[in-house]
Amino acid sequence: MNEDRISVKNALIKGDLLTKLSAVIMGAGIAGHRQIVKGAVILLLEIAFFGFMVQTGIHNLSMMSTLGTEAQGKVWNEAKQIYEYSAGDNSQQILLAGVITCFVIAGFIALWVLQLRHSYKLQKMIEKGEKVPSLGKDVKNLFDSNLHITLMTLPCVGILIFNIVPLVYMITMAFTTYSKEGEHLVLFDWDGLHQFMRVLNMNGNIGRQFWHVLAWTVVWAIFSTFLNYILGMMLATVINRKDTKWKGFWRFCFVLSIAVPQFVSLMIMNIMLQPSGAVNVLLQNLGLISKPIPFWTNAMVSRITIIVINLWVGIPYTMIQVTGILQNIPEDLYEAAKMDGAGPATIFFKITLPYMLFVTMPYLIASFVGNINNFNVIYLLSGGGPTYVGDTAGQTDLLVTWLYKLTIDQQYYNLGAVIGIMTFVILTVITLITYRNSSSYKNEEAFM
Amino acid sequence: MKNQSHENKRSPRKRIVNFLVHVLLAVLALIWVMPIVWIVLTSFRAEPGAYTNTFLPKSYTLANYVKLLTDRNVLNFPRMFKNTLIIAICSCLISTSFVLSVSYSLSRMRFRMRKPYMNMAMILGLFPGFMTMIAQYFILKAMGLTEGSSIRFGLIIVYSACTGLGFQISKGFFDTIPKAVDEAAVIDGATRWQIFTKITMPLSKPIIIYTVMTSFIAPWVDFIFAKVLCRANADQFTVAIGLWNMLQKEYIYQWYTCFAAGAVLISVPIAILFLYLQRFYVEGMSGAVKG
Fold first, then answer.
1. I need a labelling partner for A338 at 20 to 30 A (CA). Which of A189, A299, A321, B43 fits?
2. Tell me: domain A195-442, CATH 1.10.3720.10, correct?
3. Interface predicted TM-score (ipTM) of this complex, two decimals
4. What does the radius of gyration of chain A's CA atoms come to, in whole angstroms?
5. pTM greater than 0.95
6. Disruptive mutation site among A260, A266, A357 for chain B (greatest number of B CBs within 10 Å)
């Protein structure tokens, strides 16, 4: 069985002359096996690829080793009595061109493998006396058994160009000196793991801030995810109770708050909680406080405020998401518990919560990830502040908002990239651990 | 069973609990609705400035709305509205076709790259969005899409190019359409394309509406990508950046009540769309969660 597999190895060993020839002249095998148009297109692609490599590709790759060395020159021209500027190297563009060239090469290798395999497949079809599909048949198949190719090509190209390439590009930046520090914004160089060391080193200034921000990010994510989840579910349970009246009205009140665009409601909250904002004015007018509460200037108070406001944002979301699932809990579970004399609290923690945890584990993980990357709430509410002198990270900054500040405001691109990679690593570890330990992974049939 | 609940209703303890539950719900509902009521009231407030020493406005006016819609000198709200509308329509068309194509393929077709694609989408989702955003800016700059009116194309691309990764909810919906329907059509000689366009799509109205609406709303409520791409090009601003700018130090005194008016104007249609969509959202979520 294995010997008949259509693989590159088999194609190179057992392929006929045409198939072997296509290892060098791509498309030769396909054209020779009666699919002339397809073969010609592949050959053209090969020519285009080598043309690209000769034109710029090889140059791009060779520049990758130094990332450019020539600073912009300024030479005094005696004859014309002016300064003449010579174009220097721009490391950021060199790096981008290099990364794109690597992707082009990877694409070429993929094409090479595919055409070789296809040629071998056609060869075997002919040997067996089967009919080789014509071009018309191939096109027809694109709308039938190969419809997924038609449907998914454009979305995949979009993802490749605007998600994967930028991501790889950004990751490479983590290993360079691309930063405003030391004037490395135009010309920069490879820097190895130096920036990673800096971030992880607890004694340095950046490292100290990193561990600080990381700790708050984790605390924030745990609090906001679980409080939102439990309180949102309690709210949904209370509204779902048999004896609660006007269910639709209550749901409407809570859903209204998420219907308003989040950035609008968060900016309103920010203004309302300023020292002379509406909340402080209201409390002072009522005589409850004599001095304004420092919602955004005291680190501890603003942390608590953010978590509480996030409850305002998040509880309705949980409520509408779990309402449908809550109604699916088998009624006899509740009946049995009531027979045994369980109160509402016992029922909630012994039946509702375990059932919900089981069903909604993927949602819970997703919302945890979402909270670690929750940019809007922090940026629009506290802006990461209060910030101590000499720090780039404020007391309520999450890793993402710090990443934003480091890159957009401070232009420390390399540090920003390192923070992004660290966030990814942390998220991956947490996701894997929670998912592996969740009952929905361990025991798929528990509640079925 | 019936008897028991009848008895429960009459017991005084049950009635007290019931009363307390309703009081609690009323208090909570008040907390949730109050900021929204407050911003609506502020949008009609006659006194300027962000901070006043009373919670409720002293007098009411429509002037804030008039200023917002007619003042074209400082912060040109009508132009921002036009920009956002164009971007929203284009990116909505592209994203909807991307999302539906990908989720249909993943739900109905079986091919070698199916599992790898889904895993890749999950892994890419773990990277913070901003990491790609900064590099996306450099790539758009290399393509010449960061100056003048081409910023618009840049924004459309940014909002729609990667939407093929957000297939989960609509895939969950397609999964619930019985396979037997497809099989019957295959026996009648229909191609996959015909099944997709003539059978699955008409059956999927809720999820199409949901996808269209969510992708239409996205450019109205995102401000961070728009801010990074537009920088200081005031003529390319979207509504979200405009509203954000109104709260900056130099504008806040003059523009705060207009901000409230703008927030109300933007929120009302979005809120109506959302309340209408909520049903599809819940259906999609519970479908997706159940697998």
1. A321
2. yes
3. 0.84
4. 31
5. no
6. A260
